[in-house]
Design brief:
- By secondary structure, this protein is of the alpha+beta class.
- The protein is built from 6 helices and 8 strands; from the N terminus they run H-H-E-H-E-E-E-H-E-E-H-E-E-H.
- The protein has one domain.
- It has an 8-stranded antiparallel β-sheet with strand order 1-2-3-4-8-7-6-5, sandwiched between helices.
- Strand 2 and strand 3 form a beta hairpin.
- Helix 1 packs across helix 4 and helix 3 packs across helix 6.
- The protein is globular.
């Protein structure tokens, strides 16, 4: 079959759309928010149970693991536990130990086979509710099932419309309510070189970017060997970071007050 034949293009487009269902959203308004964008059914703000349900609905065979902010306690029967507890206490510090008890840090999901897939869902930290903060998904295509890069880009544009930003490998959609085109382009130009390849959540220039979906296409100019998608609300991440620092300071003050009260009770008779 000729590579450029309509039937070939249609088949590849159908395959691409069905396999890389990275994000589904309802275009009910010009300004999108976290309730209108999802990656395989997972949305920002979802709870742990909602995420697990979405993953199982996506594929019942998905492997799911949970990463928690657990405070390690020494175990008399485990000689190494005291060392691990000491190391954790040293790394987290006094306020870190107070910040994270019983909070879920992340959910990791994966599928393997002819094509592979992995999803990482990061959750918010105190004082925010422990819900989804950002999502990353990666697909790898086998040699025999690589779609053409042109068809991948065409399928993405057909489904999501014209990207706010399109580089050589990265397409991005900015759902921010801010209509400042210059700001959007500045934000997405930074995301072009940061999202997916490395963590961009702490890059100051991205703080005002709002809700952004980024899709990176791996491969060469002809075929795609894989896709990576990231969904994050950069403005919300920055807000949470500031709130967490304020909360940390409050906890530290409260802890100091409790230590002082305890010390005052232990004042010896002079």
């Amino acid at each position: 079959m000729n590579l450029r034949s309509p039937a070939r293009i249609t088949l590849l487009a159908i395959f691409t759309l069905s396999f890389i269902l990275l994000v589904q959203f309802s275009a009910t308004s010009k300004a999108m928010d976290k309730q209108h964008v999802d990656i395989i059914g997972i949305k920002l703000g979802m709870s742990q149970d909602q995420v697990v349900s979405a993953l199982k609905a996506h594929n019942k065979d998905v492997r799911v693991t949970f990463e928690k902010f657990e405070i390690i306690k020494p175990d008399p029967l485990d000689p190494m536990s005291a060392w691990r507890a000491s190391a954790q206490a040293s790394n987290l510090g006094r306020t870190g130990m107070l910040l994270f008890p019983n909070y879920l840090k992340a959910i990791h999901a994966s599928l393997s086979g002819i094509n592979s897939e992995s999803v990482t869902i990061i959750f918010s930290v105190p004082p925010a509710t422990n819900v989804v903060r950002n999502i990353k998904r990666t697909n790898r295509f086998s040699q025999s099932m690589m779609p053409s890069k042109d068809n991948v880009i065409g399928a993405l544009k057909q489904k999501y419309g014209t990207p706010t930003h399109q580089g050589k490998q990265v397409l991005a959609w900015n759902y921010s309510e801010n209509d400042n085109i210059e700001l959007k382009q500045k934000c997405l130009a930074a995301i072009e070189y940061s999202v997916v390849e490395r963590d961009a959540l702490d890059i100051p220039s991205n703080a005002g970017c709002g809700l952004v979906l980024t899709v990176k296409i791996q491969g060469d100019d002809l075929v795609s060997s894989g896709l990576s998608a990231a969904l994050v609300d950069y403005s919300e991440v920055e807000r949470q970071k500031i709130a967490t620092e304020d909360y940390r300071i409050q906890l530290l003050k409260k802890s100091d007050e409790q230590r002082k009260q305890k010390a005052d009770k232990n004042l010896p008779t002079l």
